[in-house]
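step=predict obj=GlxA family transcriptional regulator n=315
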Amino acid sequence: MQRVERIVVLALDGLYPFELGIPSRIFGAAGGRYEVLTCTVDGRPVRTNADFSVAVEHGPEILETADTVVVASMATPDIPSGLPAEVAAALARIRPDARIVSICTAAFVLAAAGLLDGRRATTHWQVVDRFRVMYPQVDLDPDVLFVQDGRILTSAGAASGVDICLHIVRTDHGSELANAVARSCVVPPFRDGGQAQYIQQPVPDSGVTSTAATRDWALTRLDEPLALSDLARHAGMSMRTFARRFNDEVGVSPGRWLIQQRVARARDLLEASDLSVDQIAGRVGFATGASLRQHLHAAIGVSPQAYRRTFQEAR
């Protein structure tokens, strides 16, 4: 019988209702593989940044039973300047081996608790300067959607909470289930954690040619050695114009985007096929198995063999 993982969401005063609901919505769509419970530091209702409060069923004692703890984000005026005693007491109940996740500004809470000391982390780009002044000991990366550093995961604002929860489902149970959850929730199935969190021009101006058609074209040809010149030619633009417009729309360079897509496709094949690493490398456009190993390790910190073994053991 498959083990059900317990996710406990810690709701703090001033929270954003949208972010509070993300774990329940995403993990709840994973076919009974997770149980999601919500608690506060004292079991009492908490304020939101909207015109209502939220009442929960559990107090902080439920944190002792959590496999994963998600700390929901709070509005900027409610970010604590330190670690309130009641929050510290609640966090102290978390098991040493539990996974801990922050959504958006909740990274301030983890940092105040010392959980991010010496670790790489992220938070919402609008509060980056404040975070760096308060917690210089944290290796803050403000340009990504989410970061996993061991058992600690941090994410940027709002929708990146969806991305990090899907990342957890994908890590725990593979791409097939994560994609099914994404379809159920009508959200993108995969946005790489290294994708830029703030895209200057997500939608091209009226009358300006988009790179979307070329991205779709490239996704059907990942096994080919696609160069910037090939992409620009397909889009009918100069390489300089294409590269600038691509970055404006996607938030990363064409080269980095291609690597992200090839790594994502390689992960699917590692999970769902018995192809060798060299065969997978060829199918997704990496010149050698060594190149695939390098890029996969840079993206998620493990080798292809270790990644495949994780999902074989889960099946």
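step=describe
The chain has two domains: 5-185, 202-315.
step=end
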